[in-house]
């Protein structure tokens, strides 16, 4: 199975060393409000030239149920769409929206469900043709996928969160934290045929 990692920092200077390892096929990078955490077009192009696939994650601070509202979902979707478009991403590119805590069943059914309804409506009706993903607990991933609000699932590394089960067919499974080429990362394993990596538009140089 292909290996990758997700990271909160710009990887551009580290790409030659990452490629030299001959170990990683994809890198998870962020869309968000914070420009220091966010992937920018130059980094996306550098990863593309190095034949490293990119998994896009949208995350600000979704760590409690209070974060999740329909209004916030619409806001996050609009920002994610714009930032992905700025990278040159095209149809078929997945954006993984995160649930970064051990959400209860009630949280998943109500505030988180409302948030993802708003996000999915915006993403799926947008002309760019992006698709939906979720990062979170096994329970959150299972419920949102069952309700057809997401196409791809990324299981969080927290084994004590609800619904953690390595036997299920998650798109990506997050593993342990560590260091790769001086970058603090979380390791990942591809667990399906595809995960919706960035598909660059033909017009993107």
TrEMBL record:
InterPro entries: GH, Rv2525c-like_Glyco_Hydro-like. Residues 23-188 form the Rv2525c-like glycoside hydrolase-like domain. Coiled coil: none annotated. This is DUF1906 domain-containing protein. It comes from Pseudomonas syringae.
């Amino acid at each position: 199975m292909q290996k990758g990692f997700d990271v909160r920092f710009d990887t551009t200077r580290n790409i030659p060393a990452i490629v030299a390892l001959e170990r990683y096929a994809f890198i998870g990078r962020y869309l968000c409000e914070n420009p220091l955490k966010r992937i920018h077009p130059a980094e996306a192009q550098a990863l593309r030239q190095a034949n490293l696939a990119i998994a896009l994650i949208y995350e600000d601070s979704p760590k409690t149920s209070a974060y999740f509202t329909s209004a916030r979902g619409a806001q996050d979707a609009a920002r994610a769409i714009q930032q992905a478009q700025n990278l040159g991403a095209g149809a078929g590119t997945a954006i993984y929206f995160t649930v970064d805590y051990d959400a209860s069943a009630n949280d998943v059914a109500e505030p988180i469900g409302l948030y993802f309804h708003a996000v999915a409506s915006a993403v799926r009706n947008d002309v760019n043709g992006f698709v939906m993903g979720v990062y979170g607990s096994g329970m959150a991933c299972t419920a949102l996928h069952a309700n057809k609000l997401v196409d791809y699932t990324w299981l969080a590394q927290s084994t004590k969160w609800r619904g953690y089960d390595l036997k299920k067919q998650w798109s990506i499974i997050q593993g342990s934290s560590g260091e790769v080429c001086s970058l603090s990362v979380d390791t990942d394993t591809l667990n399906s045929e595809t995960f919706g990596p960035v598909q660059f538009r033909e017009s993107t140089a």
